[in-house]
Amino acid sequence: MRRDKVPIQRQQLLLTGSIPRALLSLAVPIILANLLQTGYQLTDAFWVGRLGASAVASISVSMPVTFLVIALGSGLAMAGATLSAQYMGAGRQDMVNHVAAQTMLMVVLTSVLFGGLGYFLAPQLLHLLGVAPDVFANALGFLRVSFVGIIFVFTYAMFQALMRGVGQTRVPLLIVAGTVLLNFLLDPLLIFGWGPIPGYGVMGAALATLTTQALAAIAGVFIFLRGRHGIHLQWRGFLPDWEYIKRAFFLGIPGSLELSTRALGLMVMSFLVASFGTLTIAAYGVGSNILQVVTIPVMGLSMAVSTLVGQNMGAGNVDRAGQAARLGAVISFVLLTVAGIVAWFAAPLLIAFFVPRDADVIREGAKFLRVMCLAWGCIGVQLCIVAAFRASGNMLMAMVIAMVSQWMVQFPLAYVLGKHTELHEQGLWWSFPVTNVIVALVSLAWFARGSWKRTRLTEEDAQITQVTDNAYTEEGR
């Protein structure tokens, strides 16, 4: 009888081996996969850009909508990854398989619901966003194809999350590499057409992504059914277990609210920036793109921290889980601080890479970058600490930190400094480092209290409603 678990040596590394080595072995494939994921956006932007400004605008107005929908469903991925990691650490392979099957079932049902609603409500959503008439048709086609593909996006995202939970990060990397390469080939084919294949314009980019995401999702399910990489699904495992579904739902709600809060916060911040004019919008856009690229390595490291904390919490190695979180936070702080120093000196060159022939944008973008990079190290601290909270099952803590960061600190600060002081757009820029420092300090203080260590999701009598109630009572909320 085949044993459905990861190699013993790898499991020993995660639970008893060198913590730096364990973090590195988990983080490197995740970082590479995250870098490759940007290939989807870069490829779409490259080919769609050849269709003109209205085509680019149609994708730009559609992306926040789909991002928000994906954020709403991402709490299930967090719940599945957390539970699978803790059960793997506890040596409960049967529960790892059960969690994976039930989580995949929930993902399919949720994605069908969200995708169906999004497909039929797409015209109303675009009207609500005030999309211009010349952009509307392309945006509608792109958005509707994107909503059809939600089921594949959710399924593969869940596959990645569950594989990270059991410590397998290399297989998703290989799948991402293959799909990014295929997307690079399909984009021009479906956008412009070739021979008997018609060109679909902007919708062709969405069709290319739909095709590659479908193949990735199918590959993930096939790997689970084969059962050779730590998780073994069987068809009977998909019979609904309503007690588990209820448990995962309550565990995942704070995660969904957290990501949705961040998504809405970014949209509101964009509206505030837009009120300062085109130059400020351009500087903000370029600076934000640089920040996204810079944080890819520490995002991968924070995901590695999540896996290591989750498995060790499940195994009862609470002190080791804390050591992994602290080490990840220190490494992330150092990496992003060094990156910030480099960015401060090279700011004009970095901005000019994106807008080489616009001196005004280079000047304003360099100001934004030099202010923002002062506290990049604090972003790394926050990411790793929040990852530890999620992995321990304390999704509520992560949600509260997100809400405090977006709605109680950054946006009010940006509004007051930008609209009611002589700093004007410089006030927007200063809201970034100030917020990062405050949130990092709050996260560290909450982490140091140690209340997150007392959550054990793998106990037989653990109920998610009790976990949530205890968290609310414990934090006085």
TrEMBL record:
Chief location bin: membrane
Localization terms from the record: Cell inner membrane
Gene Ontology terms, MF aspect: antiporter activity; xenobiotic transmembrane transporter activity
Signal peptide start-end: none
GO CC term (a single one): plasma membrane
Alphabetized Pfam families for the sequence: MatE (PF01554)
Alphabetical keyword list: Cell membrane, Membrane, Transmembrane, Transmembrane helix, Transport
Residues annotated as transmembrane: 12-36, 56-78, 99-121, 141-159, 171-194, 200-225, 263-284, 290-309, 330-356, 368-389, 396-417, 429-448
Its membrane topology: Multi-pass membrane protein
NCBIfam families registered for this protein in UniProt: matE (TIGR00797)
Protein's recorded name: MATE family efflux transporter
